[in-house]
Design goal:
alpha/beta; nine-stranded mixed beta sheet; binds N-(aminocarbonyl)-beta-alanine; binds zinc ion; Metal_Hydrolase
């Protein structure tokens, strides 16, 4: 046989093109795109459906240690299973450095957590919480050279946040070594002051989570992060951007020629602060994430920014905690104060179907933008392109055949994560993955999970071109 598998009658889309072809696959790699390919050991008829590069989720948290007695509901087993069923073929979760821990230890610990469990390929971002001289001068450069070429830093959360000078130091290492820094931008002191004031007034319900983290705290921190990036002269990615004022800062930076990238997530398109519930609504904890969902007007601005190119990537920020039980959202009691609830919501499986249905099918973004935001740009941002993120000869056969035109409603019973709810319950979708293929192997077909927990491989990442500083115009 010429091919292990031929996908026939595929209506392919990449970030730039649309074409009809048969796709020939050998050893998990695309080796031919053409008409009337022959000699496949196996054939799949796409029947003219969209065939897109598998999704890459560049922001998801699996089995990440926490400090407060909560446990993330998804490890690499259930997390990658859920991802695959939703059309995602690569995930990039986070190896968290605890304060006082070496980065190397954090990476080794996280490899142990992933070992033998992933059904799809994965890479790691680092989370740098303790940038000692040893970390900055030795560990970070060594780890970047080994393929950990992106890391996240926090401007909020006591156990994670960096001081301004530490942020500048970390950005300088990223510039020197060619790594991409992801910034969680919220002003910690604004949030702690507001939180104390709300608690003193007895305002402890989940809904006050949103009031304790207003847009201005995000706007200020976004501006500050951009300022440090300009100072050091290095590109950065502002992650999980929630609405207008932060987007204005990103647009302002981009308009001034700075390489500032933006990421947004489904929660800022499909949820609002009202989903945090009323005065005594414990279920509101299900939508507690940071930054919090805003309002309908902000949702529209986020859609517009996706359409106009202000955002480069669309990720889930899957941070899974169960509603019931003693180690999830209610770990500190059955009516917890909002500031004691684990931050984060699940979404690794619903990310693509939601954006395809409400973005592409409703005409807000086109099919090429969908591929760019959910796959190609993510691969480029983190040094996985062109092996991942496109349909091309030589690329991995990470492919999704999409079913469109039907109608269904998101229901947690249909999902494959380990979380006992989805914040997107009841939302209508009219596009979902029919078949997900990871390096040529079918891992999801017609509603059946067909993956195996040890088929996914760790992917060392190259230094991303998107992380390089802009050349000065005089030198061009
Ligand atoms: O609330 C959130 N987003 N939790 C996940 C961790 C993070 O900051 O991305
Ligand atoms: Zn040392
Ligand atoms: Zn974050
Ligand atoms: Zn996150």
């Amino acid at each position: 046989a010429n091919f292990d598998c031929i996908i026939r009658n595929a209506r392919c889309a990449t970030a730039s093109d649309v074409f009809e072809a048969d796709i020939g696959i050998v050893d998990g790699i695309i080796t031919a795109l053409g008409k009337k390919l022959s000699g496949g050991e196996k054939e799949i008829d796409a029947g003219g459906r969209w065939v897109l590069p598998g999704g890459i989720d560049g922001h998801c948290h699996f089995d990440q240690p926490t400090e407060d007695g909560t446990v993330m509901a998804d490890d690499f087993l259930s997390g990658t299973r859920s991802a695959a069923c939703g059309g995602t073929t690569t995930v990039i979760p986070f190896a968290l450095q605890r304060k006082g821990q070496s980065l190397r230890e954090a990476v080794e610990d996280y490899h142990r957590r992933a070992e033998g469990k992933a059904t799809i390929d994965y890479a790691f971002h680092l989370i740098v919480t303790d940038p000692t001289p040893h970390v900055l001068d030795e560990e970070l450069p060594a780890l970047i050279a080994e393929g950990y070429t992106s890391f996240k830093i926090y401007m909020t959360y006591d156990e994670l946040k960096l001081a301004d000078r530490q942020i500048i130091d970390v950005l300088a290492v990223a510039r020197e070594e060619g790594a991409l820094v992801m910034v969680h931008a919220e002003n910690a002191d604004c949030i702690s002051w507001l939180t104390e004031r709300l608690l003193r007034a007895g305002k402890t319900a989940p809904r006050y989570h949103a009031e304790s983290r207003p847009m201005l705290a995000e706007r200020e921190a976004t501006h500050r992060a951009i300022t440090f990036a300009e100072l050091v002269d290095v590109p950065i990615l502002i992650v999980h951007v929630s609405g207008r004022e932060a987007i204005e800062q990103i647009r302002w930076a981009q308009g001034n020629g700075l390489r500032i990238y933006g990421e947004t997530c489904p929660q800022y398109l499909f949820l609002t602060a009202e989903d945090l519930g009323g005065e005594d609504d414990v279920e509101g904890v299900k939508c507690i994430c940071s930054p919090p969902p805003r309002d309908k007007a902000n949702q529209k601005v986020v859609w517009d920014a996706l359409e106009s190119g202000a955002f480069h990537v669309f990720s889930s920020d899957h941070a899974p905690f169960r509603f019931s039980g003693h180690d999830g959202k209610l770990a500190t009691g059955s009516a917890p104060s909002f500031d004691k609830v684990a931050n984060g919501i699940p979404g690794v499986e619903t990310r693509l179907g939601l954006l395809f249905s409400h973005g592409v099918e409703k005409g807000r973004i086109d099919i090429n933008q969908f591929v760019a935001l959910t796959s190609t740009n993510v691969a480029k941002m983190y040094g996985l392109y062109p092996r991942k993120g496109t349909i091309a000869i030589g690329a991995d056969a990470d492919l999704v055949i999409w079913e469109t035109g039907g109608q269904k409603v998101i229901n947690n019973n249909d999902l494959h994560h380990n979380v006992d709810y989805t914040p997107y319950e009841g939302i209508e979708i009219n596009a979902w993955p029919l078949i997900t293929m990871s390096r040529g192997r079918v891992v999801w077909r017609d509603g059946q999970y067909l993956g195996q927990p040890d088929l996914g491989e760790f992917l060392p990442c190259a230094r991303p071109a998107m992380a390089t500083p802009k050349p000065f115009w005089e030198e061009r």
